[in-house]
Every structure is written in C-alpha cells, then in structure tokens.
Amino acid sequence: MKKLLILGAGMAGTMAANKLTRLFHERQLDWQITLVDPDALHYYQPGFLFVPFGVYGGDDIVLPKRRLLPSDVELLQACIVEIDHEHNRVQLSSGEKLDYDFLIIATGADIHPEQTPGLSGPAWGDTIHTFYSFQGAVALFEKLRVWKGGRLVVNVVENPIKCPVAPLEFLMLADAFFLAKGMRDKVQLTYATPLSGAFTKPVAASHLNTLLAIKGIQVEPDYLVEAVNPDMRTLSSFDGRELGYDVLVSVPINMGATVVGESGLGDDLNYVPVNQHTMLDERHPNIFVLGDAAALPTSKAGSVAHFAIEKFCANFLDHVNGRQMHESFDGHANCFIESGHGKGLLIDFNYVTEPLPGAYPVPWVGPFSLLKETRANHWGKMLFKWIYWNILLKGYRLPIPTDMSMTGKQTAEAMN
C-alpha cells in the first residue's frame, strides 16, 4: 500500500483528498490517504466578507472537517513541526512521525499583523480590525453595528493576498451598508493600496476605479505602509505620506505556513516554488503543492485551487506511474465581485490574459456578465456557498471549462 500524506484540510487539501479517493476506488488502486490539520473546523472563507454586515453568521460558514471527508481518509488533528523531505517524513507536535511515498502541501496562507510595526497590539479588535479571519470578521460586525461614523480606511499592507478583490468588495458593501443605515454622509471610505489602482490589470482596473469613484470611495494608490500609530490613529507610508483613520480595516501581510519555510521548502513568504502548470515541486519529485501554499503568478483565490486540482489528479496518476504529465494548468481564475445593492461583477482570467468583458460560462449567453454590474452576478456569488459545500469540496466536477476560453470575450485591442 502506498502512502499519500496531505498537509492542510482547507479547500485545496479537502478537494484533493475527495477527488483522489474516488479515483483510487475507480481504478482499484491501493493507497492510504492521511490528512493532517491543526484545526477541527472548516471555514467558508469567502463568507468572512459578509459577516461584518450581518449577512452571514457563524453557523452559515463553518462545518467540522471530518464531515467533509470520506470515512477511509484518516484525519489527524495536530500541528506540523517539521517536514523532513530528505527522509519522506513529517513530524507532528504529538511526537508522532508520519512516513509518506508522496506528499501534498496544502497548508494555505494566513495573516501576520505582527509583521507591520504598530498593527498588532491593544488596538487590534478596537480601532484596528480585519475581516481576513473568522474572529476578526465577527469583531468587525460588533464594531460597525454601533459605530457613529468617521473615516474608515481599508489598507492592504502587501501583496499577494488571498482573494485580491475582497478589499474592494468590503468597501462597496460598506457604502451600501451605511446608505441603508442613513449615515453614508457621516462616513468617509478610503482604500490605501500598494497597487497603482484598484486592480493589477488595466482593463479591470479601469472598470473598478470608475465604480469606486461613483460610490464616493477615495483611492490612495502606491501606498506602502511602513508603520501604524494606533495612539494617533495614523498610517505612515515609506514615501512619507500619513493617513488618518477612525477605524482601520487591515489586510495584513499574507504568508504561508511557518513550518514550510523552516523546513527549507518555501520562499521569503513561506510559499513553495512549483511548476506553474503541474504544481510539482521540481526540487522534490514526490511533493506537489496545491492552493494558496504554492508560489504561483496568479491570484490566491479558491477558483485557482479548483481549476488547478481538476488538472492535478490526472497528472498525479501519470507521475506516480512514471509517465509524463500531460495536463497543463493555465492559471485560470474567476471571481465574483460583490458591489452592493444586490449587484456584482465577474472577472475571468489566467496567467497571460487579463479580465475582459464578455459572458460566462456560455459565450455570448452567460448567464453571468464579465466586468459588468448585474443582479445575476450577485446571485452567482451567493449561490457559490452551496456549490462550495456540496460540490467543490466533495470533489465533484462543475460543468464549466477548466481552461480559460477567449470565445465570446471582447479583446483589449478591440476595445481601444
């Protein structure tokens, strides 16, 4: 019996375990899958965005991880102390050592406010908040419920971050939230971003910058935070700009698991360099890296994990049997962007092609419109929670293309 060890039972690790279990059963292959994760609960992380505005509560976005896995997958709740890739062994905090034939690293990414001077400390959860964790989102709900107004600044400390459009969504939902409370005129919304605009790619950035301007949301571009002064309630940038706030909603530096870096597998942010088309760590031919743990030139978004894992499973069987891997992941990602008032946008892109106008998933038909505010896009975003729990995590295939298609999209050249 061969041993497959998966580190991390988030979206990527859970999807991989379910899809490979089904594949091993179909092919009658003798594999033991063991999954290791320090947490017992699985959070629907896209739902964190909605918690501060009372759309979701805790019961809507959390399930036990054990319920999401087949009975024959062993799930160990433990911290990972060391990945000994030289001897194909992982040591746990309990002292137990797990041998493996193949390893999947799916340890994800997490926020690290302590990396920015002044960001963590007594003001965290008081005048400084985040919605990039469950506890942070709940605390922010309590804050916004009683807040009387002032300047609310959303700041991204450094890229890459999980779901790079989420800070924009938060601002647009905040605009709608304060309008509904009759206090929008008492609130100044500001987005301080290290980017030169609302998004990295020009066509999408143009659409989103315009949308933010219409909603009266100020953008402070190229803002690289040096420190936070919680007593004065100010952000300071490396170029000397100072930005005051009454409430700071921070997206701290996102980093991979510390054990990945300490084990000599990660880069400066603890993400693992991999072949961007196969997810194989080419320094170690029995290690694959899935989801946010991988150092890829694309968004750290659930859709990237989804589309990559669709390619990965066939490649895994080829690779373990000594055959050349034939499936090539193109960096495909798509993201619904909630814009408030029951509307949203959708972007679809990959490693080489930026988000463009068009229709998705059926060219010229939709039902979703790309880079256009529609109610259908909002309902697509809300429906995704059910799809996440009942289809994606369980390893079933959605009837949409894994690769990005240009059919039905308006090219950037045609738009100029």
Let me know the average pLDDT: 95
CATH topology title of the largest domain: FAD/NAD(P)-binding domain
Structural shape: globular
The CATH homology group name of the largest domain: FAD/NAD(P)-binding domain
Helix content range of the residues, please?
25-40%
The major β-sheet equals: 5 strands, parallel
Terminal CA distance reads 58 Å
Name the CATH architecture of the largest domain: 3-Layer(bba) Sandwich
Low-confidence stretches: none
Radius of gyration: 22 Å
CATH class group of the largest domain: Alpha Beta
Walk me through what this model shows.
This protein has 416 residues and is α/β, with parallel strands linked by helices. It has three domains: 2-108 and 257-320, FAD/NAD(P)-binding domain (3-Layer(bba) Sandwich); 113-254, FAD/NAD(P)-binding domain (3-Layer(bba) Sandwich); 333-415, no CATH class. Helices cover 25% and strands 27% of the residues. It contains eight helices and 26 strands. The strands form nine sheets. Strands 5-2-1-9-21 form a five-stranded parallel beta sheet, covered by helices on one side. The chain has a five-stranded parallel beta sheet with strand order 11-18-12-13-14. Helix 1 links the parallel strand 1 (2-7) and strand 2. It is globular, with a radius of gyration of 22 Å. The relative contact order is 0.14. The mean pLDDT is 95.
